[in-house]
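[Automated response] Your request has been received and processed.

Submitted sequence:
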Amino acid sequence: MEHPFSALLKWLREHNCYPPAAEYRIIQQHTVYTRIPKNTIIMEQGRPVNTFYFMNSGIARLFLKHNQEDITFAFISAPQFASTIIYLLNRVPSRLAIETCTDIEALQWDQDNFMAIREHTETGKKMETALTELLLRWNLEREIDRLTQTPEERYCRLIETSPLVAQQVPVKYIASYLGIHQDSLSRIRNRLMKKF
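Generated structure:
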């Protein structure tokens, strides 16, 4: 079994964060390893965000409920952070929710522990900056994709970049993410199957 911090350390290195041993110990002291079952809400819409996660395994979806409709905004595949740092740091209610689509293994921080890491380590500050940049880049790319790509093109990109999402997430959430009805997604899948 891989060490619970291995994926986080790799993520940090990919984002130019190299915690020295003393900072790594501080991060470990303020971190809890957890397992979260499938279909668990780990961030509630309309409630302040008090917990932050780094997913070592599994898939979650970022969604919102609007006019009695469940709208999937994005999928989060491990290894990746799950929660919204902006809501956590500003102590404001989240406009979105996160639900696990599979069982998840994760590192977890409550607000006080994340703030301690941020305040007592240079790595915590760099991590916050990297997460903010990642969120901005993700928002921009998502918006450009929605404006310039058809649902079929976005589905193909999803299969290419996150094949486990297409295999393990219910069709209704994928269709919602694409902004189409489940029947339309079935037609897209059938067309793609015929091509191959």
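Summary generated for your ticket: The chain has two domains: 6-148, 149-196. The chain has nine helices and eight strands.
If you did not submit this request, please reply to this message.
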